[in-house]
Design a protein that fits this description.
mainly beta, 26-stranded antiparallel β-barrel, 5-stranded mixed beta sheet
């Protein structure tokens, strides 16, 4: 008996041992639900239930069957994927005595057959990380009728869109939005995000767009732009669509816009027009590109930063609306792009015309903390400024043969600007009035810019061997004529007028810049793992700044030149550079490093004084390390060194008295500074739980920085500042944070996330010959929650506190640290009878500090009600209110150096508007609506 029991025990242990070695198995077959056909080569993956980590995967055989063996005990998810079919997932557990888990016949459903793209056990994957690109599947998100791309972006993890349309992704501003990889109305993202329908979108791709040269050679050169590419569905590329909107209100606020698009396979034609004075039409977050400074030339090539722009001494209006004042805007544009000749050639053309007028009033209080005294300067400004702008751009690309390509880009801009500013100021030193003044600045400026480039690429028979040639030119000119009129009273310690100063001057400026660059790059594979990139180039920068100031010889006749305020300055620069980058790539690892060396020759000519020639040797090192743990998880670290030249404004040795109480003087002896930049990024995504985690950081330090040296006169309140290099010191700037978010299916599909961001800087300046170091840090934890239910509710909330640390070495006892908070609410509730109610609202709080003892808070509540009509809800009437509580008081507070500035400005407050919106879509025959 004992022997029998022992044999049974041994047999049981042997069976357990064999079972443990072989593990569990799963099997099943994959087929179509309607056509009843087996699906061969279907991807079948087993993932851990707790974290979606891939355990094993296989492909089905010719009969659609699959089997996976050797699985340990545990809880899993089965993920089945096949092109054009909805993904299928199912939870299962392996813990029974049965060694085989049979799924039987798994039925797949074509996406085109799905009602509202929903199945019981299946779900579409929201995100994929493909190389440098994070790709979002539009089908996996809720798209309401007539929603736009911006509404879709607000649902994507790691991406935020503010009320002005500014897009932030992974802590960085998205500067470019493409449509099917092509420019759409140039660099104006809101024309895509607020006009293209979300239901036309197949994929949203987020990536760091590399320079043409880096994209061609495959070796990162550190020049990137955070970019979103909107990929359209194939059946949405053939037809017409557009929208029209008109709105009016009792307070005289109005808006109107119209957009028409005609897409025909590989051709796109679009035209739009906008008009309005509510700050929301044609006034998106990229006004710099639309109206103003987007034409400035700041050329970074081969590690040499050449800022060719020189600001005038007439305080010319920059052409940007940033929420200050009352704007009136009109804009229109035409876009056309096409591929032809079997896709061997393509063109992309854009024309935009716009006008912007802003009337407003602004109060600025500036505190300067200087050893021995504190200065407070108050200024009240009234302004009436306008700009009229036209821009034409054209891109032509051609595949010359199977191995070579040519890309030609040209664009030109013309602007006419009128500036009219009136100021009233008063300055105190240690609470004693030292001066007050009135000042008028008005002028008319005409500005022109041209950019052109030709980029040729050649791939040789040997894989990895390439040649590219880039030739580019950038030209700008600004001519301005105007007047400065000022009356200043200076006071003695008893508060009695001690002296006066009257200024009545005419000024004219002629600023020009022309930058020519030529660069040749050659890449050679050294082995399967290593490749080498060599480059050589030259750069020529010819800039000039002629500034003349005249006083009157008789009333109204300005012909007496003021030598001390006039200058004719020419700055010629020749750069001769060569470099090499070694690249290593194996499996999950990508590594490259290299440097460029540049001979930099300055020829500075001051027609009124002297000629100066100088030479510098500039270095531009770079390194990159990238590791991909899996297709959904990656880490990247890179370093770039950049030599930054002083601007023409900083070099020109002439005083600018456009603000007679704050004189600025250039310094022709400035030398280049060197910027070191470190970037780090980690991101991961778990498919089945829709869980995203991102970590990012940026740290920059500048050696031999160019700093401002300000001397204050305590008796008059006047200051004179000049630029100097500061050897042996480094200014720093950093930004970093993390984002975590996931969808909680057990809570009805709610998306929740947390984040933390910190940014700060430290830099130097001189105040009355005393070196000052300033430190500013901002800490911002945040929380966000959102839920999207088709035709039920759209809700999004984000917000959190901020804590600011602001310190200066000159006055360490002055505490300007303080708390703040911000919250944003965006929600819509869908009611019966096709009604919707909702709000776009925000809250802002800034605590009091030692320098500014009053706190600031405001609630901007913007409710709306919408009624939709017609079968597809493409006609709507909307009644909405802006700032119901009438609290929108423009406010900002900035600390820089030993100076703290608080600005209060007038802006759009409470108003009501009724708008009528009509969206239309007419797809070609056979295309899905």
């Amino acid at each position: 008996m004992k022997f029998t029991i022992l044999l049974c025990l041994l047999f049981f242990l042997f069976s357990v041992s064999v079972f443990a070695q072989n593990g569990y198995s799963i099997k099943g077959t994959i087929g179509d639900t309607v056509d009843h056909v087996n699906l061969a080569n279907t991807s079948v993956a087993v993932l851990q239930a707790k974290d979606s980590i891939l355990v094993k995967f296989t492909l089905t055989n010719s009969s659609g069957a699959f089997a996976i063996n050797g699985l340990p005990k545990g809880k899993y998810m089965l993920l089945v994927s096949y092109p054009d079919y909805a993904d299928y997932t199912e939870h299962f557990t392996l813990d029974s005595t049965s060694q085989i888990h049979a799924f039987g016949a798994i039925a797949m459903t074509l996406r085109s057959r799905l009602l509202k793209e929903v199945i019981i056990k299946g779900t579409a994957s929201q995100m994929k990380i493909k190389g440098d690109t994070t790709e979002f599947n539009a089908r996996a998100f809720v798209i309401q009728p007539n929603a736009k791309v911006e509404d879709l972006l607000k649902q994507l993890p790691g991406i935020t869109v503010d009320k002005d349309g500014k897009i932030t992704a992974q802590g960085e501003t998205v500067s470019k939005v493409l449509v099917d990889g092509e420019e759409f109305f140039g660099d104006d993202p809101t024309l895509v995000t607020r006009n293209i329908r979300a239901d036309m979108v197949d994929k949203i791709q987020l990536y760091d767009k590399k320079s043409d040269q880096a994209a061609f050679t495959g070796v990162d050169d550190g020049k990137t732009q955070k970019t979103i590419n909107v990929k359209l569905k194939d059946d949405k590329k053939k037809g017409m669509f557009g929208k029209a909107q008109v709105g009016d209100g009792p307070e005289g606020i109005y808006q109107g816009e119209a957009l028409f698009n005609a897409f025909q396979n590989k051709q796109k034609f679009s035209v739009y027009g906008t008009i309005g004075n509510n700050g929301k039409v044609g006034l998106g977050w990229q006004d710099e590109q639309k109206y103003g400074a987007g034409d400035q030339l700041n050329v970074t090539d081969n590690g040499i930063n050449v800022n060719t722009q020189s600001s005038d001494d007439l305080d010319v209006f920059g052409g940007i609306y940033s929420g200050q004042g009352f704007p009136k805007a009109e804009s229109a544009g035409v876009h056309y792009d096409s591929k032809f000749n079997d896709d061997k050639q393509s063109i992309n053309a854009n024309y935009k015309i716009a006008s912007l007028t802003i009337d407003g009033q602004k109060d600025v209080l500036t505190q300067n903390n200087i050893p021995g005294f504190i200065s407070n300067a108050g200024s009240s400004q009234n302004y009436h400024n306008s700009v009229f702008r036209q821009k034409l751009g054209f891109i032509y690309q051609s595949k010359l043969d199977t191995s070579s390509n040519l890309k030609i880009s040209v664009d030109g801009t013309s602007k006419h600007i009128i500036t009219d500013n009136d100021y009233n100021t008063a300055d105190t030193v240690n609470n004693l009035l030292v001066n007050n003044s009135t000042r008028q600045v008005n002028n008319v400026a005409d500005q022109h810019a041209f950019n052109g480039s030709a980029f040729y690429t050649k791939k040789f028979h040997k894989p990895g061997r390439t040649l590219s040639v880039l030739l580019s030119e950038s030209y700008s000119q600004s001519k301005a004529n105007g007047f400065l009129k000022s009356d200043i009273n200076y006071y003695d310690p008893q508060g009695v007028i001690d002296s006066t100063q009257k200024i009545d001057q005419s000024k004219n400026n002629n600023l020009q810049s022309n930058v020519l660059n030529f660069n040749v790059t050659y890449s050679e594979p050294l082995s399967k793992l290593f490749s080498l990139v060599l480059n050589y180039g030259i750069g020529i920068n010819n800039s000039s700044a002629e500034r003349n100031t005249f006083t009157q010889s008789s009333p109204g006749v300005y012909n007496i030149l003021v030598d001390t305020l006039s200058s004719n300055y020419r700055f010629n620069q020749f750069l001769n550079h060569a470099g090499a980058i070694l690249n290593y790539k194996k499996g999950k690892v990508n590594l490259n490093f290299g440097t460029r060396i540049t001979g930099d020759y300055f020829h500075q000519v001051d027609e009124f004084t002297n000629v100066t020639d100088r030479k510098f040797i500039d270095w531009a090192p770079q390194a990159l390390f990238e590791y991909r743990f899996s297709p959904q998880k990656m880490f990247r670290f890179n370093y770039n060194g950049t030599t930054t030249q002083p601007t023409l404004e900083q070099l020109q040795p002439v005083a600018s008295n456009i603000d007679p109480l704050n004189i600025v003087v250039g310094n022709p002896n400035l030398t280049p500074s060197f910027t070191n930049t470190f970037n780090m990024m980690y991101r991961s995504y778990k498919v089945l739980t829709d869980q995203f985690f991102g970590l990012y950081g940026n740290y920059t330090f500048i050696t031999d920085p160019i700093v401002s040296h300000v001397n204050y006169d305590t008796n008059t309140g006047k200051s004179v500042s000049q630029y100097f290099n500061l050897p042996g010191k480094a200014s720093t700037n950093f930004n970093g944070g993390l984002n975590f978010g996931r969808k909680f299916k057990d809570l009805g599909g709610i998306n929740m996330g947390v984040g933390f961001n910190v940014n700060g800087n430290s830099f130097y300046n001189y105040a009355n010959d005393s070196l000052n170091m300033s430190k500013n840090y901002v800490f911002n934890p945040n929380f966000n929650i959102s839920i999207y239910k088709d035709r039920k509710i759209n809700f999004g909330f984000s917000g959190g506190p901020t804590y600011t640390i602001s310190e200066t070495s000159l006055h360490p006892n002055i505490n300007n640290n303080g708390w703040g908070a911000r919250a944003d609410l965006d929600g819509t509730i869908y009611l019966p009878l096709k009604f919707q109610i909702g709000t776009y609202s925000n809250y802002l709080y800034t605590a009091a500090t030692t320098s500014f003892p009053q706190s600031f808070s405001q609630v901007i509540f913007n409710p709306f009600i919408i009624k939709t009509f017609l079968k597809n809800d493409n006609l709507s009437v909307e009644l909405w209110a802006n700032d119901v509580f009438n609290q929108n008081s423009g406010f900002s507070r900035v600390a820089q150096g030993n100076q703290i500035t608080q600005t209060n400005y007038n802006t759009l407050k409470r108003y009501f508007m009724l708008t009528i919106n009509y969206d239309f879509t007419k797809m070609a025959v056979g295309a899905s609506k």
